[in-house]
Design a protein that fits this description.
By secondary structure, the protein is α+β, with helices and mostly antiparallel strands. The chain has one domain: NADH Oxidase (3-Layer(aba) Sandwich), CATH 3.40.109.10. Helix content is 33%, strand content 16%. It contains six helices and five strands. Strands 1, 2, 3, 4 and 5 form a five-stranded antiparallel β-sheet that branches.
């Protein structure tokens, strides 16, 4: 049976991409979903760079500790935080928006892979990001050439407690 929560279970980290462009109308939908993400006090302390230029994608993938497979995707999106807009919450807010992007892309059949391993100074140089901003995460975005199986998850009782930490919540009790 299908429901609105299926998207959470379909999402996978994609590291292989087919050649081909995401239509601008789909990219616009993904970016609009990203822009609609919640943020602390609605400050929206973010900026996103969509990289489609092949040379810049390759340079950016090299700045991500040599993960050059990223450049095979149609684009790479960089989520940037603005501490001057929300000093305490900018990183969390950008992460929420990036997760929204990932799920929107999945809903439309595209692949992503959260990238947290990068040389921030090198990424800033490639994308000409102002010094006062912070790179939070990146993701390739493209047509998946693989559909990996879901990776193992911790047992429910190791992840959730009821009423106090360490009091296991059992799925069967819900």
């Amino acid at each position: 049976m299908s429901n609105n929560l299926d998207i959470f279970f379909k999402r996978r980290s994609i590291r292989k991409y087919q050649k081909g462009e995401i239509p601008w109308e789909h990219l616009a939908q993904i970016l609009e979903a990203t822009r609609s993400a919640p943020s602390a006090a609605n400050r929206q302390p973010w900026h996103f760079v969509v990289v489609r230029d092949p040379d810049r994608k390759l340079a950016l993938s090299r700045a991500c500790h040599g993960q050059t497979w990223m450049a095979d995707a149609d684009c790479i999106i960089c989520g940037i935080g603005m501490p001057s807009v929300s000093e305490k919450w900018y990183a969390v807010d950008v992460a929420i928006a990036m997760q929204t992007l990932v799920l929107a892309a999945t809903a439309l059949g595209y692949g992503t892979c959260w990238i947290g391993a990068f040389d921030e100074d090198a990424v800033k140089e490639v994308l000409e990001i102002p010094a006062e901003h912070r790179v939070i995460a990146l993701t390739p975005l493209g047509i998946p050439a693989e559909q990996p199986a879901q990776r193992p998850r911790k047992p429910f009782t190791e992840v959730f407690s009821l009423d106090k930490f360490g009091n296991p919540l059992h799925l069967k009790d819900l």
